[in-house]
Amino acid sequence: MSQLPLKIAIGTAPHTADLKNGTVPIDGVAADFVEVTPIIGAFRRMVRSLEFDVCEMAPTTYMIAREHGSPFTALPIFLHRFFHHDGILCRDGSGIRSPADLAGRKVGVRAFTVTTGVWKRGIMKDDYGLDASGVTWVVDDEEAVPGLTLPPNVVRDPAGRSLVAQWQAGDLDAAFTGAAGIGRQGAPDANWSQGANPPQPVAAHDLFDHGFDRASDFYRRTRIYPHHGLLVVKDSILAEHPWVARSLFDAALAAKAPFLAQVDTPEGGDAEIQRYRQLATVVGSDPLPYGVDANRPSIDALIDYAADQGLLKRKPDVSDLFVTLN
């Protein structure tokens, strides 16, 4: 039987490696994996030109794109998980010691819709009472979905300076770290993670102390386990070949098995394995659960957060967001 050719863009990770190298085949599919580094670049290409048949995508970008009419639907395959009681630096001398202190301040984040930002703002509201509308959010990158109207408290530097430059100059009170903020510079390209001009050390402190413990407590109370990166498939493919959804889901599960075996060992592995091993001590033996039911608290929370932050005009029904697996 001939196989269906599909152009696929997924980031490389311990749990996707066997899928991408062909060790785990996708039943009925001749997969053409396209390498995009960083994978964030593929999100934009999918939203703007439907370049791929199957593509990894940030969940907030996906929900916004769907509301704006993008013809693709997600599988409940969540490719990355993070706790979010961390990753915000505050300038020493700013007087910022808790999330409530961010009110009235300027905080740098790469783009307002970046899923890391949506999670952090939502958690800071839920757990610390921060009203995100009272913060000036300074961005230096474009949003993945063109034409999106942002809240009035989202601004750009009039001189076009990057977050890195503004942070160095002392013009931001706080900033997100890593890819969500001052850990990169410019639009996604091959050298994006390093940035053209990495920031020089600035006297600063983490907003959260004991972040992992705080996040663990948040998870135990709410069962919210922030997800990043899901898999979307063109609606035209799903309409003509509905079996593709199950083939992709089953292959992703099979490719995850060696990763889970590594996580289950007491030591060793790269930094990503070690990170998930630590998460497993809190969330259970599978720190990358797939499927809607296993992730319902997190899915519902992200919908609520995105709508509350003005990124969605209406809250979508979960059944409309994900393919039904037969």
TrEMBL record:
Protein name: ABC transporter substrate-binding protein
SUPFAM superfamilies: Periplasmic binding protein-like II (SSF53850)
Domain of life: Bacteria
